[in-house]
Amino acid sequence: MPRPTASTIRAFRKTDAAAATEILKGSLEAAQWTEWGVSELLGWSGVVALVSEDGRKVGGFIVGRQAGEEAEILNLAVTPANRRKGQGGALLNAAMDEFHARRVSRLFLEVRESNGGGIAFYEKHGFLKQTPSISVWQSSTGNTKQNFRKSPSRPT
Description:
The chain is α+β, with helices and mostly antiparallel strands. Helices cover 26% and strands 31% of the residues.
């Protein structure tokens, strides 16, 4: 089992937007956002945005948004060199802790069906697949999405 890297989780700053878009270029399974779009998201109400940092270099990020008692993970990406070293899990856990502190009772996310690594990652962290209530959502590229849900509280 890989050993977690020694990274710091901190709040996402507008100055991190360029690093986030670079990370996305190497993370084609993640939602692709522009630098402007990332910066714009940070101003929305209910946003939780965090980065993992090794020294002074951003190695990953997560962005989620709360609406009432529900929240959604909008994007999570880690540089290819930092995958399977604990940064994604640390980011996800920190975001879940923040949502739990905000009294969020349900946390949702979408993963492309073709993203087997992402599906395994979220299942490992306790997310459960949801069956579509009306129809399966499909993007313009033909990628079918899987919906997941979880309570943001984690076992102690």
